[in-house]
Amino acid sequence: MSRNLNLIFLGPPGAGKGTQAKMIVDKYNIPQISTGDLMRAAVSSGSSMGDKVKGYMAAGALVPDDLVVEILLDRLSGDDCRDGFILDGFPRTVGQAESLEKALEKRGMKLSGVVAMMVPDEALLKRLTARRICKECSASYHLEFLKPKVEGKCDRCQGELYQRKDDSEEVILNRLKVYHDQTAPLIDFYQKRKALYTVDGNKKIEMIFSEICDIIDSLN
Ligand code: ADP
Ligand code: ADP
Ligand code: ZN
C-alpha cells in the first residue's frame, strides 16, 4: 500500500508556496491544489461561481469561507487525490481549517503535516510586484530572482507569462494585512495539533526545497 501524503502549504502571499508545490508535485507525484488557481479558472470561464468570487479577489480580500470550501472539497474528491495532495493557499481562516478537519475525518483521511513558510513583508513585496505567471500551467517566475530561459515564455510548457492584476502594490499591501489578521492564526491552530513544520522561506529556492523534502521524508 502506498503511503498517503496529505499536505498543507501555509504562508503569506509570495512566500513561495506555488513555486515549492510545483517542485513537490514533480518529485512525489501528488497533485497541487491551489484555491487561487481554481478560482481564477472559475472567473475566466465566466461561471456563476466566477461571478461570485471575482470582486473579492480583485480587491485582495478573502472569498467567503462557504464558497472556497465548496470549491476545495469538490476538487479533493478527485480520483487523483487518493494517494495525497498539497493544499496551496487553503485553509486561510480558522473557519476553513475547521471545515477541512471535519471533511477529512468524514472521509477517513488524515493530514500528514503543515509546512509553514516564513518570509518578511518587505521581501514579499519585492517578490510579488515582479512576479510573472504562466497562463497555461500557472508556474511562477520573477523578473529578477527566477527569470524564464526565454523572456515572456514558461520553461515548463512554453505558455505565455502575464502579471496578475492583484500583484499591484496597493492590492498586495491589502493581501498582506489580510494574511496577518486572518491566516496567521492558523500557525497556532496547527501547532496545537502538533502538525506544524516551519521553514525559513527567505532563502534560495533550492535550499528551501531540500528542507521541505527532508520534512516530508520524516513524516509518518
Ligand atoms: P497568492 O499565491 O499570491 O497567495 P492566491 O492565488 O493563493 O494568491 O490567491 C489569490 C486570491 O484568491 C486571494 O487574494 C483571495 O482573494 C482568493 N483566495 C485564494 N485562496 C483563498 C482561500 N483559501 N480563502 C479565501 N480566499 C482565497
Ligand atoms: P505564493 O504561491 O506563496 O504566492 P510564489 O511561489 O508565486 O508564491 O512566489 C512568489 C514570487 O517570488 C514569484 O515571483 C517567485 O518566482 C518568487 N520566489 C519564490 N520563491 C523564492 C525564493 N526562495 N527567493 C526569491 N524569490 C522567490
Ligand atoms: Zn507553463
How would you describe this protein?
- The protein is α/β, with parallel strands linked by helices.
- 48% of the residues lie in helices and 15% in strands.
- It has helices at 17-28, 35-45, 48-59, 65-76, 94-106, 121-129, 169-183, 185-192, 205-218; strands spanning 5-10, 32-34, 84-88, 113-118, 131-134, 140-142, 161-162, 196-200.
- The strands form 2 sheets. Strands 2-3-1-4-8 form a 5-stranded parallel beta sheet, sandwiched between helices.
What overall geometry do the principal axes of the alpha carbons give?
A: globular
Order of helices and strands: EHEHHHEHEHEEEHHEH
Bound molecules: adenosine-5'-diphosphate, zinc ion
Helix content class: 40-55%
CATH class of one domain: Alpha Beta
User: What's the rounded overall pLDDT mean?
Assistant: 96
Strand content: 15-25%
Number of helices: 9
CATH topology of one domain: Rossmann fold
Rg over C-alpha atoms, rounded to the nearest angstrom:
17 Å
CATH A-level architecture of one domain: 3-Layer(aba) Sandwich
Residue windows where pLDDT falls under 50 for at least 5 positions: none
CATH superfamily of one domain: P-loop containing nucleotide triphosphate hydrolases
Side by side, the strands of the main sheet go: 2-3-1-4-8
What's the main sheet like?
5 strands, parallel
Distance between the termini: 14 Å
| SS-derived structural category | alpha/beta
